[in-house]
Write a structure and sequence with these properties.
137 residues, mainly alpha, 3% strand
Length: 137
């Protein structure tokens, strides 16, 4: 992990990009043909939120560090945040091992998104807003 000075502007940019991209992904019809694209997109948007948290702290990390940052959040979800690690591993298999996701993989990832996305997004947005307020105090 690299230490930098906090970069709230970049963090907020990542948050906005993740939110917009997820809205687009929600317009796609879930299917086996689109499964890899949908899974990678959902993963990438969670990762962006983790990267935003790191940037607010003046840090820059890899994919694992970004996802781990999300698992530390105090949010209420219907699935444990550690499922994001499963999502990271699945995305890695798709990207680097040529794994073709199955219907069960897509169903699970959509369930992760449904249970975790909004609470995490709202928490990260709140932390960014609090961070901004702290700068001006």
């Amino acid at each position: 992990m690299h230490n930098l000075k906090p970069d709230l502007a970049q963090a907020r940019s990542l948050i906005a990009a993740a939110e917009n991209e997820m809205k687009y992904l929600e317009t796609l019809q879930p299917s086996l043909n689109a499964a890899g694209t949908i899974i990678r997109g959902i993963y990438e948007n969670f990762r962006r939120l983790g990267a935003a948290l790191l940037l607010m702290q003046g840090k820059k990390g890899n994919h694992e560090e970004s996802i781990n940052e999300l698992t530390k959040l105090d949010v209420s979800t219907t699935r444990p945040l550690q499922v994001l690690n499963n999502l990271m591993r699945l995305r890695h298999r798709i990207n680097y091992d040529g794994y073709q996701p199955k219907e069960a993989d897509l169903t699970d990832v959509l369930s992760i998104k449904t249970s975790c996305w909004k609470p995490i997004l709202e928490k990260v947005k709140t932390l960014a807003q609090e961070h901004k307020a702290a700068i001006y105090e």
